[in-house]
Task: inverse folding
């Protein structure tokens, strides 16, 4: 089981801020995106267990995952 | 061909000429070339030989979304090097529809000429008016007064009192459609405007646009293609840009531990949820009244990131609170209340100050015991000192470097004398390369690696130099056109649009490679100007404390090698 947090526009799109998901032992981000109905363009930044993670990370059972959309500017 | 207007503030002569050798250049591209051709790099920034350049991008005045940014440039009194600062607002589109690419203010009024001048552009011509009643008037009332006099739709570029007092932290204000304030904030261009005693430029909209297209069909085809990309992305734009503007980044920047907090001593604010974008949008919608999200700061913009933040009674406190305001006036001052940040933000705006420079200076002032972190009133008191132009106010209004020097604080968040924006380079190391190496001083707009956060580990030491270089090159190209950074992600997917736009508007035919090379040439010219002005590569560095003092929560220091840093110099 992993915990997922959707942030900003993604929370509006998903209609929820958080969810848990049974992923078995592990899965890739693209596999997770497919399960959630998202595409690669939807994920701007990924945090696993509160730390920055590359987009080719493997997500393991028990992880906490935060997904942010791509944001520009500042 | 677009026109250049020259206004001699000594003789009050106004002359117009064809863009000539500047055809094909706008915004930062125009300023880099103009400064190298016409301005003595050794001139005094607030002296008679500096010039204040106000110019549009190449696409100013067209119906292309998010392309009407205004650039303000000259030699910076903060960095002593070249500066281009850009702003939203309506003025660039208004100027371009009068057929004007740039207005150049030259020389200084005679010493006994104490008048306050407003340049008025209308169908009747271009003239300087004396409006001494506007001397030291706040930016908000200045905009209101000018719109009452010249019409509600008049474009306004103006200076606040800080710029008139020639404080180096002053920016130039550009009004949005309903008079909201946007800023060409950085580099002290408001002080340059103040040195020339120019309070404002007013543009009464042209009855019919005098903008010329070289090949309208090519231009329109490119515009359609670009707009379709925005239409396709509209569900996302509505849920991101139109709700949060740039404030959505605040939470992520905190999560990554790179958010300036308590005078750049921490990288994350424990109360970030109280002042982040999600909280801001929640309050705007709950309070209602004049509060709004999703407003356009430029006519025709489809991205619409401007918001109006209201108080508990629904009355406007500030338009618009954006990411830099939250970080430099919020977490950096340890303020955990959006109302406090909005009130300080509005005051900073009304004084015509750069929120980044001033927020950083206030943080240093608090470190020196002149204010109390987390106490809005103590910071407002310092802003009131700026308004009254007291010695203390002048110190802080002159920015982070002066404030640190006067109060004996040596560890200052700045590069080349200009304050860092809302990214601590110890935890976003690529931005350290940009801040140190760009000719524009501590300025993220020349190449913010935050946008590459998905592909580059923020704390990595390898690859940051090349990535900074690539991003700086991209931005130098983008900034020739007058595009907002929010348009970047769409346009960079189809860079051939840049070449079609350029050809369609002014007939200059470029390959995509030549377009990027043009941006590189802009950066090279900026570097050349700086070297001649005395801002040598020896100043391409970050403050020493950032190499030595760890930044929580990662406890990282800035530790890129010199070799890595050199990759980010565009010479």
Result:
């Amino acid at each position: 089981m992993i915990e997922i947090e959707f942030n900003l526009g993604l929370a509006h799109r998903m209609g929820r801020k958080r969810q848990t998901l049974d992923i078995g032992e592990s899965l890739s981000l693209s596999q997770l995106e497919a399960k959630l109905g998202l595409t690669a363009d939807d994920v701007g930044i990924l945090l696993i267990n509160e730390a920055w993670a590359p987009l080719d990370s493997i997500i393991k059972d028990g992880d906490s995952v935060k997904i942010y959309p791509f944001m520009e500017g500042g | 061909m677009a026109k250049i207007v020259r206004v001699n503030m000594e003789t009050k002569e106004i002359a117009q000429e064809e863009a000539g050798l500047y055809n094909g250049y706008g915004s930062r591209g125009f300023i880099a070339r103009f400064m190298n051709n016409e301005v003595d790099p050794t001139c005094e920034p607030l002296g008679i030989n500096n010039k204040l350049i106000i110019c549009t991008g190449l696409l100013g005045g067209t119906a292309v979304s998010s392309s009407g940014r205004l650039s303000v440039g000259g030699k910076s009194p903060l960095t002593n090097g070249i500066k281009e600062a850009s702003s939203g607002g309506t003025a660039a589109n208004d100027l371009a529809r009068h057929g004007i690419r740039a207005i150049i203010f030259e020389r200084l009024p005679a010493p006994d000429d104490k008048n306050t001048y407003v340049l008025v552009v209308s169908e009747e011509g271009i003239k300087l008016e004396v409006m001494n009643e506007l001397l030291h008037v706040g930016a908000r009332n200045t905009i209101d007064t000018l719109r009452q006099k010249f019409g509600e739709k008049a474009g306004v570029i103006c200076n606040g009192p800080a710029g008139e007092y020639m404080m180096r932290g002053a920016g130039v204000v550009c009004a949005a459609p309903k008079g909201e304030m946007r800023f060409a904030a950085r580099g002290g261009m408001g002080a340059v405007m103040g040195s020339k005693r120019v309070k404002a430029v007013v543009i009464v909209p042209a009855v019919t646009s005098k903008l010329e297209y070289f090949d309208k069909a090519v231009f329109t085809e490119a515009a359609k293609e670009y707009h379709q990309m925005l239409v396709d992305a509209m569900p996302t734009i509505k849920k991101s840009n139109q709700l949060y503007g740039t404030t959505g980044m605040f939470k992520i920047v905190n999560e990554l531990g790179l958010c300036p907090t308590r005078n750049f001593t921490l990288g994350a604010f424990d109360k970030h949820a109280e002042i982040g974008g999600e909280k801001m949008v929640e309050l705007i919608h709950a309070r209602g009244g004049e509060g709004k999200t999703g407003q356009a700061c430029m006519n025709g913009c489809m991205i619409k990131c401007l918001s109006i933040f209201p108080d508990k009674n629904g009355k406007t406190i500030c338009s618009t609170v954006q990411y830099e305001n939250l970080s430099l006036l919020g977490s950096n001052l340890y303020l955990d209340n959006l109302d406090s940040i909005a009130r300080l933000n509005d005051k900073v705006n009304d004084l015509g100050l750069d929120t980044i420079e001033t927020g950083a200076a206030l943080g240093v002032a608090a470190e020196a015991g002149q204010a109390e972190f987390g106490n809005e009133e103590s910071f407002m008191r310092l802003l009131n000192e700026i308004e009254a132009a007291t010695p203390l106010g002048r110190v802080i209004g002159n920015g982070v470097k002066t404030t640190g020097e006067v109060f004996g604080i040596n560890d200052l968040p700045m590069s080349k004398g200009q304050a860092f924006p809302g990214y601590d380079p110890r935890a976003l190391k690529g931005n350290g390369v940009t801040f140190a190496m760009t000719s524009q001083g501590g300025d993220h707009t020349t190449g913010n690696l935050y946008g590459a956060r998905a592909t580059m580990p923020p704390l990595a030491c390898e690859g940051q130099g090349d990535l900074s270089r690539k991003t700086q090159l991209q931005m130098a190209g983008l900034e020739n056109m007058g595009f907002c950074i929010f348009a970047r992600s769409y346009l960079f997917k189809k860079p051939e649009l840049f070449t079609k736009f350029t050809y369609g508007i002014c007939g200059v035919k470029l390959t995509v490679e030549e377009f990027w090379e043009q941006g590189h040439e802009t950066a090279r010219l900026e570097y050349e100007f700086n070297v001649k002005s005395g801002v040598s590569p020896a100043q391409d560095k970050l403050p020493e404390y950032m190499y030595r003092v760890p930044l929580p929560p990662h406890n990282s220091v800035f530790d890129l090698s010199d070799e890595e840093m050199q990759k980010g110099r565009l010479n």
